[in-house]
Amino acid sequence: MPDRSIAEAGAQMRAGRLTARALAEAHLDRIAAENPAIRAFVAVTPDRALACAAQADADFAAGIDRGPMQGIPFAIKDLVDMAGLPTTCGSRAAPATPAATDAAVVERLLAAGAVPLGKVATYEYALVGPSFDGPHPPPVNPWNPDHITGGSSSGSAAAVAAGLVRVAVGTDTGGSIRSPACYCGVVGLKPTHGLVSRHGIFPLSPDLDHAGPLAASVAEAALMLDAMAGFDARDPASRACAGPAAAELGQPIAGMHVGYARDWFATDPALNPAVLVAMDDAVSALSLLGARISLIALPDYAVMEAAGAIILHHRALTIHRHRLHAYGRQALQSLLAGLGLTGADLADARTAARHLRDETDAILSRFDAVVTANVLAPAPPFAAFAGNKAVWTAMRTLPFNLTGHPALALPIGFAGGLPMGMQLIGRAFSEARLCRIGHAFEAATDHAAQRPPRQTGGR
After folding, report:
1. Which ranges carry the Amidase domain (predicted)?
2. Domain span at residue 377?
3. CATH (domain of 205)
């Protein structure tokens, strides 16, 4: 039952062949059986889940339809407030006081009739990991438990990949939705900056912070994003909502113009050759679907990453400076990278960001989407992080936090039994177009249909 898509489960609930309570109970049973091995959930809320499911069932019975997410279970990254639970942020430094209210994204999902199952793991304060000095052991990759999930939406990706839930809330400041989506073989959607309110989400770097969905499919990511999105005056960056991300699902992509930023990653020494082969094959699949492909050059990646890193590290240290003594080793190492940065450095980086955003806008104005690599190799093993040290993994994600453009991550194959992925980037508020392209690709390939083996028992 937990393996039904949102559309399938919704149709059955509306036809009276399934109840939201039964669906929630099936998810809770699977979490109880399999989460000890996956370690994705750090807190499960059965009472609240069943109460919300009962309300969804009562609404269905009364003819009240709140939309596609009604009765659908979801998980919440533990950087996001959920009333009645502490927001631990994956850290021993976090206060144990339960949140008094729900974050804006949780409010909106509850208003849409969705059913909250609980909190899933994050790297400490959305910084780096996996770490072993936090309040919980890190989640494992469902495809191979000896490998990491990526971060910082580690629990969100692991929970979706393992089939514990179809959709989960994630956050993305430098790739934290897209990196774990890639490593775990699921879909991740970082929306346009300002489309989803961050009120009630602990900040890392507000210039770059985004919230968005991780999901088992493109269609489900689109449906969840539509429930999450909307203007919120409590978030200073919030902007008027775009059209529904699900509006163009199922439409053909023949005639669309897609730019392929191959040179952004093809000669990088960190690239696993299998990623290049899979990327070329994925772009060929888009061509066979009728898209017109052009090789393009994006702004220099190193410059974009450097400007983004300055903003991230300067702002993160400002937010976290007062409690550095309580952080784990990896998080502390990451935060200390901001010590040598000045206000002038931040101002220069923001100026560069504006220029790079304008340059990227000009490129994207000529295309329906741009495709490039997401992460340059499959998930590394936990052994690479021996000694609890921070390890850099090569990604191509941070620039679109810097520019604020939407980016859709989706699987494109496997290397050594581990997933690989790409990302589609579009103009601001073009989520519907990205999901249309991603959904067409997904339907024409079998990558998203593959699931890891069930895991039981603890590690």
Report:
1. 23-435
2. 6-444
3. 3.90.1300.10
